[in-house]
Specification:
InterPro entries: TPR-like_helical_dom_sf. The protein is mostly helical. 77% of the residues lie in helices and 0% in strands. It has ten helices and no strands. Helix 2 crosses helix 6, helix 6 packs antiparallel against helix 7 and helix 6 packs parallel to helix 8. The N and C termini lie far apart (60 Å). The N terminus is likely disordered.
Length: 171
């Protein structure tokens, strides 16, 4: 279980800027006293964001005191968190297909907070910027993405298309 925990869930969340309260909410349900206790446990370990928990060692995570098997409970919470983000991404893609750019902008901002280095999220954000005719912001988004995905041709293709599109409009 330990290697699965590290190999599957932590890397996907290691850049998440979301507050740790997202995980605290999952773990505590609607129980306020549990929420306060778990918040205290996380504060004690200086976990303020999801990425802090995601990047922690098993030894550090094991020092969190939860009612039950800590690793299993944290694994379940991280899994639930990732499922929520997957659902949000699917929902965002559908919103994009329906052309609701204002709602998509809200969803993209949330996704970028949780998954700032996720290929699909960055690509969706670039498509949104393109659809909003914010071409320079779109190009900047793609240039930044190249640092995360230097060998990904989809980004390069989109970048080339944008440069071509802008050059046609300048003539």
């Amino acid at each position: 279980m330990d290697s699965v925990f590290l190999d599957v869930f932590f890397p996907r969340c290691q850049y998440s800027e979301a507050p740790i309260s997202v995980i605290t909410n999952i773990l505590s349900g609607d129980d306020t006293s549990k929420f306060l206790d778990i918040s205290y446990q996380f504060r004690k370990l200086r976990f303020t964001k999801v990425k802090d928990l995601a990047g922690a060692t098993i030894a550090k995570i094991s020092s969190v005191k939860l009612s039950g098997d800590t690793l299993t409970l944290l694994y379940g919470a991280m899994e639930k968190y990732c499922e929520h983000l997957n659902d949000l991404l699917v929902s965002s893609i559908l919103v994009h297909q329906n052309g609701n750019l204002q709602e998509l902008q809200t969803k993209c901002n949330e996704l970028l907070m949780h998954r700032p280095r996720d290929f699909e999220v960055i690509l969706l954000h670039a498509q949104l910027l393109f659809d909003l005719k914010k071409y320079q912001e779109c190009i900047n988004c793609l240039i930044n993405a190249k640092t995360f995905f230097p060998n990904n041709t989809d980004f390069f293709d989109m970048f080339a298309f944008l440069v071509y599109f802008i050059s046609l409009n300048d003539n």
